[in-house]
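Weekly sync notes, structure subgroup
Attendees: PM, AL, DS (notes)

Item 1: joint prediction request from the bench team. They want all two components modeled as one assembly rather than separately. Inputs as received:
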Amino acid sequence: MTKERKFRSKKMMERTSNAVVYAILIIISVVWLIPFVLLFIQSLSGDMVGYSIMSVFPKKWTFDNYVRLFKDTMFPTWYGNTFAVSIVVMVVQTVIVLATSYALSRMRFKLRKPLMNLMLILGMFPGFLSMTAVYFILKEMGLTQNLIGLMLVYTASSAMGYYICKGFFDTVPKSLDEAARIDGANRATVFFKIILPLAKPIIIYTILMAFTAPWGEYMFSSFLMLGDPSKFTVAVGMKEWIGREMVNQYFGVFCAAAVVVSIPIVLLFMFLQRYYVEGVTGGSVKG
Amino acid sequence: MANLSLKHIYKVYPNGTKAVNDFNMDIADKEFIVFVGPSGCGKSTTLRMIAGLEDISAGELSIGDVVVNDMEPKDRDIAMVFQNYALYPHMTVYENMTFGLKMRKIPDVKKDKDGNPILDANGEPVTYMRHYTREEMHERVIAAAQILGIMDYLDKKPKEMSGGQRQRVSLGRAIVREPKVMLLDEPLSNLDAKLRTQMRAEIAKLHARLNTTFIYVTHDQIEAMTMGTRIVVMKDGFVQQIDTPKNLYNYPGNKFVAGFIGTPQMNFFEGTLKRSGEMVDIDFAYSDAKISVPFSYFYKTRPDYLDGNTTVYIGLRAEDISIDKKDVEASQAKIKVKVSHKEELGNETLLYGDINMEGDGYVESSTRVIIKCDEDTEFHVGDVIEAALDLDHIHLFDKETELTIIPRIPEYNYVDCAIADGKLTFAGATVELPSAVQCKNGSGELLIPTDAMSVADDGVLAKVVGFEEISGTKLLCVEIGSRRFYMTVEDKIEADSVRVKLDMKRLTINMDGETVVTPMARAIRFDGKLAKVKEKREVEVTKHTKEGDVTVNKLKKVVDFNLVIAGASYPASDAVALKLISTLGVSRAFTKELIFECTPYDVKLTDEGIEATLKTVLDYGSERFAVYSVGDISVPVYLQDQAGAPASAHLSPDLDKIAIIQKDMDIRLI
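Output from the run, pasted for the record:
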């Protein structure tokens, strides 16, 4: 009898603790979701609120904000700019990061360790420290107010993001490379035919990281594109709308734009979520 | 399908650790070689150097007579099986096996539409390189799959299979390419015991069937003993012994090999041996055990160990000690053993005991003894029983160097000798000493190297008593007087008696603990280094012009490499310079001190070269040598015919025959 009671009480304890954990998780997710839900609601609101406290349920529901967004503003251009930059950066950066990580994981050359440490430490400094210098360099090259300049800035330091990727490659047994090399493959064949097919999670992870970073980046693009609205990215353009003088007029449009901007990211994450988690844990935990 | 040769192979890591030290071996075609040793002994590193996965720091590796040091693994035509199988996880078994074939091209004859070979201007068929066709690949995969019994898994992915199946696929992937050499790196270590035994047999069968050279790495001595035609035992980067399994077991070259090969481990006792007449007294240390046995067991034993003072290891295997009543009664070598416990293994029983009556027989010590006995042998713990030692199988090792002191090929023959008026008398025979061997009268001990005795018409008469062939060396056992001598010969000798001549320049004579006659140095070592000389001079340059290639003389800066040997410079051949620079590195090649080693026969008197002054001329009768001093070292130089030896001369070593050794790391470079 006593034993059974003890057993039951343990089960009860487990249940209670589960309930507590779930409650906390639900609260956290609600807190996380509130801004986005509010944003979404505001994008459908016809009220002119501006910085004043907005009502959770607007008096007037409308799609006007979206219509205005695409008809009356330069948003489609900005969206296109951002998309172009992000896609190019995504492709180039993924290639560079994967190749660097593979090389650092597999090849043994002089100063490999110091190089890795140097890259890691350099990567810890915020990128905008170099902003002024980068601006003048690009100006000399005639690449300010130019999307290519922006792409260059974003991809230039991509090799420094080797860390997680290298961790993943380190978990792939070296004997696979060796077997393939004995089988007659050269380094490139080993990389493309043997290692990359095994590295799907980390490729997805790299792609996601490479896409999302320039997608929402503000600092560099606002600096580089200053004065030419046709070259703005979404972040720079939208920032204008919530400036003091424009906010009353554009707040609804801003919310609509924010929703549109989040669509590709949401889609990407929804489809690739499974790999993303694998990639992060695969790289960091085992590596 | 190829022989391999490893010459002075070294692996040195950047931090200076030497993983492999002076690995020398010739592997014949179709051999099954096993590298065995404890972990970290360099066996895998050696295998990986053969595979090309690891750089060779120094030395020369050739596969089928082609030096492959700088060849990519894929061009060496080898296949390798890994411990963790290394199957490509995203490919099916079939794809795994075809991968290597897809990567390769084979030469083929170009054919026209009708299938006739196209001929070039000389009437030779035109060849080109092509990939394997789908059908060819399929045929090969199916053939390999049938051999290995993996036909049913061809469509499966590696992760759907068990360890044994995976290892089979990995073997299959290796054999479809029909490589010259199969390399196997602990292929069975990840399998369970039963599967391991089974796969062991299958790999042996595969070897018999494929007729390919196999090199197999393992740390398991049973695998090594059962599979190898020859075994390489390694420890700490050094090759301990290379021999057949049987010879390793019966004639271990040192204590490590003796202990590593065979289960249960060989019993090692410490003790001293003292020869008194025709008997030898063995006194076991840490124990009261003392036995006296006939000298005939110790013919090949180095006599300097039979003095009763030098402690040696006495090794006896568990099966060479018997407690059977009949054996004990008949034996002259009986010792008392206190029984501590036994291990019953079903087919045999191991009895643990101690020859020290205070010992407990559990801890490995120099008095613990393990005896193989019948299972129905009755005894009680604490009993003191008698055991008979089978001295035909005794192994003796030096306590410091742990090398065997009963070598199969003895290094020296030791014999008492007497010298009177330029005549040497040993074992009843008398020979004239040449003028080069100057020695006072008296009696002492004579050391004759085994290879310093040769058959000659004007030699001492000797009776042939035995002949052995030990891994290529032919060893003749002769009797002069009543004393046994061992000598190496070139051909088997059928006659009952031969005449034996001594190589006088190789004799050592000791008198009263002093060496009065020393053998002539067989190797001369000069210090030196590699030097770089930049010079502007006219060289022939080939110019490519429209009219064809024209050779013109042009003033150009040229870099020459010189070998500086004991102060004298010799131009280094491109091959030598390249090899030194590539092994030492560009920055270190010119600063590292080198040693140049050659024999007295490879040094010539020349007009230019190393400055030397004459010390003396040694006349050994049939040969004459001039001894010169170069700095602190004395250099014997072979004098041809009646050539004179000038008081001051210039010496030049034969650069083709010289060995080059890096001084501080002791790495043989050439």
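Discussion: Residues 74-284 of chain A form a domain with the MetI-like fold fold (CATH 1.10.3720.10).
Action: AL to compare against the crosslinking data before next sync.
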